[in-house]
Write a structure and sequence with these properties.
A three-stranded antiparallel beta sheet has the order 2-1-3. Strands 6-11-10 form a three-stranded antiparallel beta sheet. About 1% of the residues have low confidence. The longest helix has 33 residues. It is an alpha+beta fold.
Amino acid sequence: MGGGFDLRDEPWVPVRLVSGESVRVGFRGLFTRAHEIEDLELPVAPAASGLMRILAAMTTRMAHHEGVRLDDEDAAEEIAAWYALRRAVLGAGRFDPDAVDAYFDEQVPERRFDLFDEERPFLQDPRLAKECVDGQGRPNTSGVNKLVMGRPTGDNGAVLFGHFTDGDPVPVLAAEATWHLIAQLYFGPSGQCTPRKITQTRPGNGDAAPLRKSISYFPWAPDLFTTLVLAVPAPGQHEPDEADACPWEEQEPPDPLGPCPALSWPCRVLTGRFRHAALLVPSADRTEVTDAYITWSTHEAAHQARDPFLILDRRRDGGLQAREADGSRALWRDVDALLLMDSMQYALRPPALEGIPDALRNRLRVRAYGFDQDGQQKDNGWFQATTPPILQWQQEVHPEMAAHVERCHRAAEDAGERLEFAAKVAWKLATDVNADASGKVKLDRRKPGPWAAAAAARYWTAAEREFWQLATPGRTSLWPQPAFVNAALAALDAAIGTANRADVRVARARSRARAIIRGLLQAPTAA
């Protein structure tokens, strides 16, 4: 039996309607009801991040005004014309149901959205069933635990991280398997993987997925229709191409030994950068996934591309790299990089946040999807967060407010860094009888003491409250540093504790640490 789980109509994407009701929809329902949908409710943030790119690519094929689609090459020749086309599309307020049906039923080859199709399953490579084999030619699968993000694989961690073992794998529902398939293609690991034999060799290593350890930022509207139209990347960085296609639109599957296709606009830059290949093994009734193959898709050099949803940070050597996701770092600490234009020295904001329509600015929030990982195999955890409607404060429309937000952020970061240093100094003075409270203190990186981490945990929670209280148009003339210094002092005292402060040595150490933090309270210099 082949096929059996058609993603066009199977209810696999959890969403929340504007009415507040939570439902599940397929691709077709998602687009035809996008104006009725308030939010995605995918519990796997890396899957949501990848899905947004897939949906943005599909949007270019369906969103049109008077027959001119958002992927139109002629409109893309002039950015002003393309932005005018986008405004007209937004003015319709919803996707044309006929255009949605035409895309899913006519423009894409038959069965390409079937998760278990024998010839071209969605986002999978059916050749793996014959190419991922052991020395005797028997199937060599990766296991369903390898597919599902968060499950342990191998012999380690089964008890610590969940009641799953490779010896007794638990199947996953087909809908949820689709989430994890998307997450693997966008965030999968590098290094050792299931060997794939195409030539006489069986290489068993691959490259990291294109979004590994990253955090993505999307303009987020009150309805999903507007969110998806704004997620379509503007032309300019990548050339339009008649051959531009998503994987499910390609006539032939990619050649794993051939060169990688150029990253053309708009779809290949969103869906054409995968470094992994996967194949799901369904249950007999096609409702679950019982096993999976996950391996490399190419060893060719990847084309360089600017992802439209990533902040780029400037390294000390002048180069740029994507800002990495950090589960301990709150989203508000990135707000200044979302507001300031690319002329700033240390970061470039995501291209998706450029050219925001003025009529929408005061209603648009920013949604962040992050996956805290290392560059190879370790996954620490994923997260999502949403800002208030901050895009009305972008530098090109509200330079005074953007500059104030940047000052508030810098003041918070300065106080946080000073607090960490001061807490370490306090611990050294309190516990080392040879340390001189009146002189220079030499810290031992291996022995930071417990106060720095405890103080930081308290400080950043308080600092977020102070930030949003200060980040308002009516307070742009205020000097923000005192508020964050006071928050740092309170966090230091809480970390040291009232009982400890009764000790004379600790009292002296606390006094020195507080003086270090108060050193930030110097009169602000004129810009």
